[in-house]
Amino acid sequence: MSVLVVNDRYDFNSLKDLLAITDGNLASHLKALEKEDYITVNKSFLGRKPNTNYTATDAGRKAFKAHLDALEQLIKQQKLK
Questions:
Q1: Helix and strand tally (H, E) in the chain?
Q2: What is d(CA 75, CA 14) in angstroms, rounded to the nearest whole number?
Q3: What DSSP element (H or E) covers 46?
Q4: pTM of the predicted structure, to 2 decimals
Q5: Which helix (H) or strand (E) holds 51?
Q6: pLDDT (tens digit, 9 = 90+) per residue, 17-51?
Q7: Which of 3, 22, 33, 42 might form a disulfide with 38, Cβ 3.0–4.6 angstroms?
Q8: Which of 11, 13, 2, 4 is nearest to 56 (CA)?
């Protein structure tokens, strides 16, 4: 989600290369994010080659921000101990 939140869109192969994970691993994570309506999937062709792009939705951005806020609270609590 962090990649999709800071970029307008990202394609499958670029995400796979950036994250250094397998096709199957990435596909399963993207499917889970799509199921929660955190991302949208846009399929097209570049010439004769299929190209799949992903975009963070407003709901996905909101959920990601909530996740970061929760992590920040955990860090703050640990510093107080």
A1: 4, 3
A2: 31
A3: strand 39-46
A4: 0.86
A5: strand 49-56
A6: 999 999 999 999 999 999 999 999 999 998 999 99
A7: 33
A8: 4
